[in-house]
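# nightly structure sweep
# worker-07 picked up a monomer target from the shared queue
# config: single-sequence mode, recycle default, output format = structure tokens
# input follows
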Amino acid sequence: MTFLNSPLLWTIAGAIGVAVPVIIHLLHQRHRRHTDWAAMELLRRALVVRSGQVKLEDILLLLLRCLVLALVAFALVRPTLEDQAEGGLLGEQRVGMVIAIDASFSMDHGKYDTRMEEARQRVSKILETAKEGDPITIVLMAESPRTLLRGANFNLDRCNDALEKAEVFPERFNLERATVELATLVDELKGSVKECYLVTDAQAVDWANFSKEAANGLETLARKSKLFLVPVETEGRENLAITDFSYASGSLGPGGLSRFTAEVSNFGLQTHDGGSISLSVNDRNGTPRSFGPIKPGESRLIDFYPDLDLSGDANLTASLGRNDDALAIDNRRMASVRVSDRIRILCIDGEPFAGDGPGETFWLRKALELNQLGDDASIEVVVTDWQETDPSAIGEYDLVFAANVEEVDSSIARSLDSFVRKGGGLVLFAGDRMDLPSYNENLGGLLPGELIGISAFGEGSETVGDSPGENSWTLAEPTSSHVLSQLTRTMPQEGRDAVRFRKSMEIRPDDNATIVLSLSGNGSPLVLEKQVDSGSVLFFATTADRDWSNLVVHPLFPMLMQQSITHLTNRPEAGRAGNLNPSESDLGQASAESLEEALSPLNAVVIPIAANLGGIVKETRKGTEISRTLLILALLVFLLQGYLARLFTNRMTSKGESSLQESLRKHTVVAARRT
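# output follows
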């Protein structure tokens, strides 16, 4: 037995109600005044014969009146017999339904009828089992739930109007968030039976392996209601989609050459014959490019080299041609980039030129100004001594490079923090002059980790640049998807092995930091990146000169610096927020058998597509509310106690005695029973 209202609240109220007549009876007995007078002895003798019978009659009436109040309180709790089917004599059945429809973009699949249209038909079958007045909630499930109808009394026309508004969203199916919202909606239902229906295409990516959070959410739903999983499907699962489109490499400045890469994937079970893909820039369509056959489960990369000579924001869209794809929503993908006429870079030199050799930023400046020609240069580099840096001027630049700066005072730290959070790019190079406690304390929010100390390899070697010998590290195999890692991977292994490192700065990476490049042997990070609000910080665990490595005189260094400029000033991934989650493009569905096995611990019902949905629902529907029966019973008991009270009172005076003693006895008993 379950209760629709709070048992504790109404139990307390019922207990108080039952206690009232008992308390009144006890108080009446306690405060009765005894006055002895001459005729009292005669009256007492007349009553002693019937006093035992009167007490029994009074106790019976008291119990019946207490029972009336107890039945009313119990009815207000709205108890439900869970194993009682509809049509029982004990009460009525009121069914509350929460119908959740999968509205992720995979539900738009289908050459003729889409999965969403099939879902509407399945929901209509569910609604046929409802009765007028049953509370109904209809909600759409995607990345976040959208409620179409909330706790409304069932009306077929109103429900059909809500179903017509059901649409597919360009979002994935978030089972974890859906279960939390559905549990709240189930709690709001008032009915002897609570049912929750999940109408979905049951994609394997969502239902084959639940996350722990999703499993807990489904368990909560199954505990609060009868849980039904209602799969839908359409013919076939063939689908071709653009799963990635992003900036790959190159310069985004005027006159620069940039490369964007689109990934086309075949999620179907048959080989796709191929098709065409085109790139549009600011709504200017480009020439379509053809691609050949793609086998099931395979992907094809297509490169584009768009013309981005105009400054400002550029919106790029890669689109598949018409190829009779049954799911068109994932056939396009977007990226946004920012093209600047001129990029201003501030280089803070921690060890300026002192007459005995180049300064700390000598090689760095050459790499940043590579191929820049006089006034036509798109990159302007300004070098300043770290002790003469004006904190208020930092915001005038697009990028800030700092090389082996001894310490960062609080004013510089505040300016750099504000600069990065507003979208600026900061690049830090290590060195032996750095005051590590100062960095960790003042730049802790920007650094991609905690600076530990300097690690040396081969203490006997004095130089690394020209004859490194064997006492040095090399670059580890790049494995990150970061653009700098991908750029390094394009260099032959022999070229990467020629970069040698004798010292490096040890750093303990933060959880949200990205390790871009590492050193071989010890695996310590060499290049790290950390996102800070709208900006980013790159940290190089080596110097910007030749003291610790020969990186600055290796061809890889100017490539890394030019790519860093493009990466930090553009932030291409910011324009990809509106793209679809590619996992939703995999239309493979979990089998009914696997779903039943996964949901069996929850006692949930999986309704096969070919099964009689309405019949299964009615067969499993149990739960009858007995409140009305209890109220009727309370009324009958109330009438019974009234009848008995009148019967007992009349019987006492049925002998027709009219003596003073009998008259007083009658009025005393009647007054007590009325009280």
